Amino acid sequence: MLCQNCQKENPESAKVCVHCGKPLHDTPPAFHPPKEEEDVVLKMEKQPSPQPKPSKTPMIVAIVLGGLIVLGIGFAVLFGLQYSQQMDQKDDQIQDLMEENDQAWESLQEEREARQDAEEKAQEDDLWDQEDPWEDSVPFDPGTYVANYNMVLRKGPDYDADRVGSLKKDESVVIQSVQEGASQSYWGKTSSGSFVCIQDPDYTYLRKSD
Length: 210
What we know:
Elements: H1 35-46, H2 57-129, E1 143-147, E2 151-154, E3 163-167, E4 172-180, E5 186-190, E6 195-199, E7 206-208
Antiparallel strand pairs: 1-4, 1-7, 2-3, 4-5, 5-6
């Protein structure tokens, strides 16, 4: 009888292996798979167990969120550009209005100055055109006079009045009226509206023509 423990032969009547002392009938025969089957089992044991495939849901969610973020940034940039353009247009409109107001103000100022100058000139002309209360008492009469010197024609009966022309020596001039000026001087108003001094305490500048 073959001992299942030590694989040695024993007598048929033996109940215990004469070689290893193990029972011959009570011990179930050990299973020894063929070597090829052992290799297959070992290979299967060595092979790693299949891992579960990762879920694609987080990746999809991340892609969607990334797309939404990019769209949000794009809309923000677009809105910012439109807002900036609108503000630039408003600034240009305000600048144009300010320039128009400045031009209108300058025009108004020029009109006021021109009107004021015209009024002052009119008042000045009226002043020169007024009859002198001393006219009846002046020792000179209107008429034609001859210059004794080279003379200056002035805007008014005063040495400080603006110069408007000249009169050469021995040149004739028509005096329409005579006015008394400062420092006992006498001025004749010519036909052109200018004034020339006829006489002062020092000199007689014009003589009556014969």
